Amino acid sequence: MREMDRLPDGCSRKLAHGGGTDCWQVQKMDEEVRRRCSTAVRRHHRLTALLLTVGLLCTQIVTSSSTPLDDSSSSEKIELTACQHLRRAESRRAKSLGDSLLLAVQIPRCTANGDFEAIQCSNEVNGTECWCVDEYGVELAGSRRGDANEVNCTDTTIAEVTKCQASSCRMFCPAGFARDLGSGCPVCKCRDPCEGIECPRGQQCEPLEVECKNEPCPPVPTCRKARSLSDLCPAGQPLAISGTARPFLCGNDPGKPSCPPLYRCLVQSGNDYGVCCPASLQFEKPGTCPKPEEIMSTDSTGYLCGTPCGHDLECPQMQKCCTSNGCGRNCQQPHN
Fold first, then answer.
1. Which residues neighbour 204 within 8 Å (Cβ) at sequence distance 6 or greater?
2. How far apart are CA 273 and CA 100, in angstroms?
3. Whole-angstrom Cα distance, residue 262 to residue 280?
4. Tens digit of pLDDT for each residue in 26-71?
5. What is the C-alpha end-to-end distance of the chain, expressed in Å?
6. Buried b (16+ CB within 10 A) or exposed e, 154-176
7. Cβ contacts of residue 218 below 8 Å, gap of 6+?
8. 3-state secondary structure string, the chain?
9. Dihedral of the alpha carbons of 35, 39, 40, 45, in degrees to the nearest 10
């Protein structure tokens, strides 16, 4: 039986019409009937409040259970800025390198909004040198000082450095343009985020694309297990950045770096950038290989062999892949 059914008739009508605390049609009842009626009304109100509370609690449980557990972590990744991404990566690298090389890691400082602080220092432990940076966190030439108090990013000498001629370079560089060491002005060459990065335990630095809260969003230098360059191209070696072992990054979309002649850009599925692979392994550079017996040799050093190779495109500059006695196929300077 419901609570309403056990009430006197006057109380039932009172509840149905939303009356006051007393039963308006039972005034002539004795005090016992009045007491029973008021008690029943209070019990009904408490029961209604309890049902409402349980209903709200169930709604909260259902709502929370339908929310993915990793939603906060996924949104955190998207909400990071370029400075925050770099700070996280450099902090992880500093921890891996240990105390002996900790001072070699420059962990960037970010503002409350996540931008690079205008003044950065060599490290957080012992900031002996400080300088001004641009929106990518790159040092502005002429701004480095021995103490943070001596750095003035509005200094006229720095302002003159930053007044560079407008570049006509239409190449898109994800990490911004490299800067001339003398003038500090941007040059028509992509900046390498891994330049000067030292990785622990034989790992190799690779630019890792990330999602940022806002632009710019350059790739983050990340230390990973070294990969063989021979795995990046179907055949032959990918084009490397001059003076380094890191491959030159290219893209097939307009505005992205393109490969030089004799190479084609190979972008793996799901990636925005790829590497320059030999366009044709059958291509031969001009000139004639020296005869196998013409290879230079001395009694003390033996044969002076060049870099081992499989075809001309694996040899630097105009050298050809030639066969010579004692060396097999190696890179040699051609005749003509």
1. 223, 224, 225, 226, 227, 246
2. 35
3. 7
4. 444 445 545 555 555 455 555 454 444 444 444 443 333 333 333 3
5. 111
6. eeeebeebeeeeeeeeeeebbbb
7. 82, 136, 174, 175, 176, 193
8. CCCHHHCCHHHHHHHHHCCCCCCCCCCCCCHHHHHHHHHHHHHHHHHHHHHHHHHHHHHHHHHHHCCCCCHHHHHHHHHCCHHHHHHHHHHHHHHHHCHHHHHHCCCCCECCCCCECCEEECCCCCCCCEEEECCCCCECCCCCECCHHHCCCCCHHHHHHHCCCCCCCCCCCCCCEEECCCCCCEEEEECCCCCCCCCCCCCEEEEECCCCCCCCCCCEEEEECCCCHHHCCCCCCCCECCCCCCECEECCCCCCCCCCCCEEEECCCCCCCEEEEECCCCCCCCCECCCHHHCCEECCCEECCCCECCCHHHCCCCCEEEEECCCEEEEECCEC
9. 140
Q: Which tokens hold the place of 304?
A: 């002076």
CA 138, 143, 144, 148 dihedral sign is negative
* Exposed e or buried b per residue across 110-149, where buried means at least 16 C-beta atoms within 10 angstroms of its C-beta: beeebebebbbbbbeeeeebbbbbeebbbbbbbbebeeee
Quote the tokens at residue 132: 């001004």
**For residue 218, which amino acid is it?**
P
The pLDDT of 159-186, averaged and rounded, is: 72
SS (H, E, C) 123-185: CCCCCCCEEEECCCCCECCCCCECCHHHCCCCCHHHHHHHCCCCCCCCCCCCCCEEECCCCCC
Q: Which residues pair with 120 in a beta bridge?
A: 131
Q: What is the pLDDT of residues 298-328, one digit of tens each?
A: 555 566 778 888 778 778 778 888 888 777 8
Q: What is the token pair recorded at 335? A: 């005749």
